[in-house]
Specification:
The strands form 2 sheets. The protein has a 7-stranded parallel beta sheet with strand order 8-7-6-9-10-11-12, with helices on both faces. A 5-stranded parallel beta sheet has the order 2-1-3-4-5, sandwiched between helices. It is of the alpha/beta class. Helix content is 36%, strand content 14%.
Amino acid sequence: MKPTVFIDRQIPAEVEAFIAEHCIIDKWDEKTPMTRQQLLLKMASANGLLTAGAKIDAELIEHAPHLKVVSSISVGYNHFDLEAMRTRGIIGTNTPHVLNDTVADLALALILGTARRVAELDRYVKDGKWKTGDGVKLFGKDVHHAKLGIIGMGRIGEAVARRARFGFDMDVVYYNRSRKPEAEEQLGVRYFELNDLLAYSDFVLLLAPLTPETVKLIGATEFKLMKPSAIFINISRGQTVDEQALIEALEQGTISAAGLDVFEKEPIEADHPFLTMANVLTLPHIGSATSDTRFDMAMLAAQNLVNALTGQVPPNVVDELL
Ligand code: DGY
């Protein structure tokens, strides 16, 4: 008898066909996202769940007596309650590696976009404000040869460092829980303690995963250590930053600009202060969102799911659940 899986979002037909070879599929086919209550009801018969951000906590697990695996189409797994999953022996998997270059590309887009004020000046042209003699007020900052500080030097951090060093001749420093001697040698990056990195960098890029230790890792104290000319970029999770402190740092000129792909609450509220700040570049959490990469992520997640349900080791079990 094939195991039953529930898929809580649209996935490519080819990926679904692969899962169907091994599993009975129940899926959410509506255009609107499903509610928590609807998901809980679907858990009654599922052996596997394919999702991207659904909160996997004690409540969901209580509704899922047959659940063996949750496969997330994401590298981040901060939506997993690891303790609750471990207690019930539920496997959790994610999709690392396949998105590294795509997310690194977006980091560069935010660095370039904030430094050269791309979105702000696009609006300026389209609003018919461009006049001869505007010159100085359109100036931005150089990216090439500037100092980039990367907080969280995992695989994506290394992909960013490679682009920054060899594409833009940037001086790259990093802070990480552990030193990366190989990256230091191959990429010519230097390790700095966090506070030193904050004081040194023209661009501070936050890439650290969201864990209990990284909640509000960057707050008022850290913004005060940065240069007034510094640009802060966040492509990790909104909760790694004290968002109120960031708003104040931008309003008071403690730092100069921010490029943000992630927010404390997503989607962002319509009256959020960021939406009226010209020095904040906002994106709707699209770090890994290209057609090719999202396909690869969905396929890898499907492989993880099927392996876990057919007695094989999934390629990407979340470390803490091994
Ligand atoms: C990830 O894969 O974790 C990206 O942030 C998309 O959620």
